[in-house]
């Protein structure tokens, strides 16, 4: 397990782990845990099949647990495509919000991508998700596109981008 490094500070008793570091025998139960976790936080239309996603080589998942337990409190899913990384999913359970956990996850991803020679992190976010937009703005993301009805009638999506080298 590892903490997020100099940019973010995880609350005490909270640890961060890349799924790549989890033993293969644990991945099936983690896939089930992630699916259950995200069912509570996202509409079913954007649900991932983690059994499938975990087999893809360019998918990365960063997990946050309560230390010494298998209790998942937050996660981030990304996909690396050459010099670009797509941030697909990010969530923290309600009881652990506003403690800096999501910011640590984004910082960790940014550091990993910088080390790996990736230049940009991009994502789509629902315009109505104010906490997420505030988080991404606080991490330095800039709006580069806006699409109406992207998530369904009346639901606008915003595309955000972060220049990894500059942050
Ligand atoms: C968005 C979300 C991931 C933020 O997680 P979090 O762990 O609470 O975020 P952090 O504590 O790291 O917040 C870092 C900064 O983001 C901003 N922020 C986060 N939540 C905010 C809120 N509810 N209102 C205003 N600003 C907020 C603040 O600037 C905050 O810093 P501060 O607490 O020092 O003011 C969480 O609210 C969540 O899981 N929401 C549901 C799922 C979702 O919308 N995911 C993103 C779309 S993919």
UniProtKB/TrEMBL annotation:
It comes from the Eukaryota. SUPFAM superfamilies: Acyl-CoA N-acyltransferases (Nat) (SSF55729). Pfam families: Acetyltransf_1. Residues 14-165 form the N-acetyltransferase domain. GO terms for molecular function: acyltransferase activity, transferring groups other than amino-acyl groups. This is N-acetyltransferase domain-containing protein.
């Amino acid at each position: 397990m590892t903490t997020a490094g100099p940019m973010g500070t995880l609350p005490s008793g909270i640890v961060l782990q890349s799924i790549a570091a989890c033993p293969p025998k644990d991945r099936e139960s983690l896939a089930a845990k992630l699916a259950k976790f995200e069912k509570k936080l996202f509409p079913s239309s954007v649900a991932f099949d983690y059994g499938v996603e975990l087999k893809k080589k360019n998918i990365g998942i960063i997990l946050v647990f309560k230390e010494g337990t298998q209790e998942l409190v937050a996660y981030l899913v990304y996909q690396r495509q050459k010099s670009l990384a797509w941030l697909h999913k990010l969530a923290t359970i309600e009881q652990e919000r506003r403690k800096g956990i999501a910011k640590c996850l984004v910082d960790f991803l940014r550091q990993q991508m910088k080390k790996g020679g990736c230049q940009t992190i991009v994502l789509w976010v629902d315009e109505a998700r104010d906490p997420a937009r505030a988080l991404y703005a606080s991490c330095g993301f800039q709006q580069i596109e806006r699409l109406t009805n992207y998530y369904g009638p009346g639901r606008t999506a915003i595309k955000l981008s972060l220049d990894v080298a500059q942050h």
